[in-house]
Design goal:
The structure holds two protein chains of two kinds. By secondary structure, chain A is mainly alpha-helical. Chain A is 69% helix and 1% strand. Chain A starts with a helix and ends in a 5-residue tail after the last helix. Chain B folds into two domains: 38 residues, no CATH class; 89 residues, Ankyrin repeat-containing domain (Serine Threonine Protein Phosphatase 5, Tetratricopeptide repeat, Alpha Horseshoe). Classes of the chains: A mainly alpha, B mainly alpha.
Chain lengths: 447, 148
């Protein structure tokens, strides 16, 4: 966690899709104005824009520190809530939780949570709020649990459309037997969600088409419309299933089967084998645990079966809902909340295997399997740091060319000039100093 | 039963602990005030930055006072030459965007320098680099053929 925070601090502020956000924050007279300026727009992310403005005002010119500190705080919250969701009581639990943490950080869906900073990462708050919703579901009921659940949903929906996942998590938690949020509150939360969806889908114009992958290709919006036509098509069906598969098997990436493309090019780098093999083993273990959960007899000494069942139900619901939300275009980071829940159920899957070991042969085979999977996930965890290092170099370079796109007004020009000077003054590592093998082992697949 | 669980539990946890140790080492070095080795690069000359597509470093060095028109040393392995001007390094590395950036940052060419660079660009065979260099052609400079 500390190393990720350090890495985030080393990465200059993002330029692409972001420069205007800084300038808008500088021009905005206040947080409320920023909030209301988003109402009626195609993005409709008022809380996100308000956060950008609030941090801008609080920074007193130290924007890098302000935005990075907020990003790190969100990351700490996500890690804290993730660990809090794991019942760590025995050595087996510790081992399973270490495994789950490496799945969380090493997952391809996690990378976007640290890589993208526009300038406040828009997906990380959703992960935090969904994890919070899961916690609330499990708690004993009190009035403030209802209130926090409602606030979490509102905050999430006003940040990003994926905020609806908070509702999904709360409902799934209730179906799984969670009583933290009362039925009355859940009904109110459902009404708010329906109103939000109605406003978002019916009243506001949606700008949904984006570049996306299709099998081994990467298609631009025009190409998608030309090939598949307007409206729902087999492209949308592909995108939904591709999104599910990206969580379970680390392929495709942003809709593109990069492994197929690499195979066609005659060179599949080790990083692809690493990601596919680690996911394949983990998903298999999760599948076995799910089957046992519903079909096999419980272990006599297992006190957490209900907790496990609840996490599996929430994972299935969040995975399905996230995939449906990705119908227009596939992007790994859209699946980041599902990826987080995947890591949670990976904990249960490993734990379940460990507590059911009865024979020496099975123990040795399981040890070999877990050693392989855990080692591969550990490589992916280190890869996240490598991605941050690569990202730092890319953003540093982006600031060099900003001089050609300076805002015309004096306030914006002064701000961007100062941001550029600050970003360029931060030392980054040129890839020339990084061993060539590191890209093949650790890198992610850029488009 | 507990012993049976120990081996697979250790196997599940140890690699993750190794990853945690790596993260701890990076963080520990940072807390102690060192730049962690993982985050260490090395100082680049302006010509090296140009050859290694390091636009950020090119801009930082020039705006920090480095002369974009003089020769700099290149460490072995960056290019096949030991000294070059930033523009020469960018052209030899086939980096049209760096040529444009250097010009933006104040690199200039006289007629003799441009002809030399043009021929170097032709040697690389990169069309975008040749076009970028040709845009810098001083007024009235004749377009002569390059020596084989």
């Amino acid at each position: 966690m500390g190393s990720l925070a350090y890495g985030l601090l080393q990465v200059p502020l993002q330029v692409t899709d972001t420069l205007q956000k800084y300038v808008d924050a500088a021009h905005s007279p206040g947080v409320w104005t920023s909030f209301t300026s988003e109402i009626g727009t195609t993005d409709f992310r008022p809380l996100w824009v308000a956060e950008i403005k609030l941090l801008f005002d609080l920074s007193y010119g130290h924007l890098h520190i302000a935005y990075k500190a907020f990003h790190i705080a969100l990351l700490v919250a996500a890690f804290g809530l993730f660990v809090a969701a794991l019942p760590i009581e025995t050595g087996v639990d510790v081992a399973a939780s270490l495994f789950a943490l490496s799945v969380l950080v090493g997952s391809n869906t996690f990378t976007g949570l640290v890589k993208e900073a526009t300038p406040v990462n828009v997906y990380l708050p959703i992960v935090v709020l969904v994890l919070l919703g899961m916690q609330l579901s499990r708690r004993p009921h009190t009035w403030w649990v209802d209130a926090v659940a409602m606030l979490a949903l509102i905050a999430a929906c006003l940040t990003l459309e994926s905020g609806v996942l908070v509702w999904v998590a709360l409902v799934a938690g209730r179906i799984a037997g969670g009583r933290g949020v009362s039925d009355r509150a859940l009904l109110a939360i459902t009404v708010v969600t329906v109103v939000y969806l109605a406003v978002r889908l019916a009243l506001l114009p949606l700008d949904t088409q984006n570049t996306s992958g299709y099998l081994a290709e990467r298609l631009e919006p025009d190409q998608i419309r030309e090939r598949f036509g307007a409206g729902l098509s087999r492209f949308n069906v592909y995108t939904v299933f591709a999104s599910i598969s990206s969580v379970l098997f680390s392929q495709p990436r942003d809709g593109t089967l990069v492994v197929m493309r690499a195979w066609q090019a005659g060179d599949i780098p080790p990083r692809m084998w690493i990601s596919i093999a680690s996911s394949l083993i983990t998903t298999t273990l999760i599948g076995i645990a799910a089957w046992r959960l519903w079909r096999a007899a419980p272990v006599a000494t297992e006190p957490h079966r209900d907790h496990m069942r609840a996490d599996f139900i929430v994972f299935a619901a969040v995975l399905a809902a996230s995939a449906v939300a990705s119908f227009a275009y596939a992007k790994d980071v859209i699946m980041s909340t599902a990826g987080t829940c995947y890591a949670l159920v990976a904990f249960w899957a490993v734990r379940d295997q460990l507590i059911r070991v009865r024979r020496i042969g099975a123990a040795v085979a399981l040890a070999a399997l877990l050693l392989a999977a855990s080692s591969l996930w550990a490589a992916r965890v280190i890869g996240v740091h490598h991605v941050l290092r690569t990202q730092a170099f890319a953003f540093h370079n982006d600031w060099a060319t900003v001089r050609d796109h300076m805002p015309s007004d004096p306030v914006g020009r002064r701000l961007v000039t100062a941001l550029r000077a600050d970003a360029l003054s931060r030392p980054v590592v040129n890839p020339w100093f990084i061993p060539r093998w590191a890209d093949r082992v650790f890198d992610i697949d850029y488009f | 039963m507990v012993r049976l669980r120990t081996l697979p539990a250790v196997c599940a946890g140890i690699p993750a602990l190794v990853a945690v140790s790596f993260c701890g080492a990076v963080f520990g070095a940072a807390v102690l005030g060192f730049t962690p080795a993982f985050w260490q690069g090395g100082p680049l000359t302006l010509a090296e930055a140009a050859a290694l597509r390091d636009q950020g470093e090119v801009a930082r060095l020039v705006e920090g006072g480095d002369d974009p028109n003089r020769e700099y040393e290149l460490r072995p392995g960056v290019l096949a030459i030991e000294r070059a001007t930033p523009l020469e390094a960018a052209v030899a590395a086939r980096r049209a965007e760096i040529v444009n950036l250097l010009v933006h940052e104040g690199a200039t060419l006289n007629e003799r320098g441009w002809r030399r660079l043009h021929c170097l660009a032709m040697e690389t065979g990169a069309g975008d680099v040749v076009r970028a260099v040709d845009e810098l052609r001083p007024a009235g400079a004749p377009l002569l053929s390059c020596p084989e």
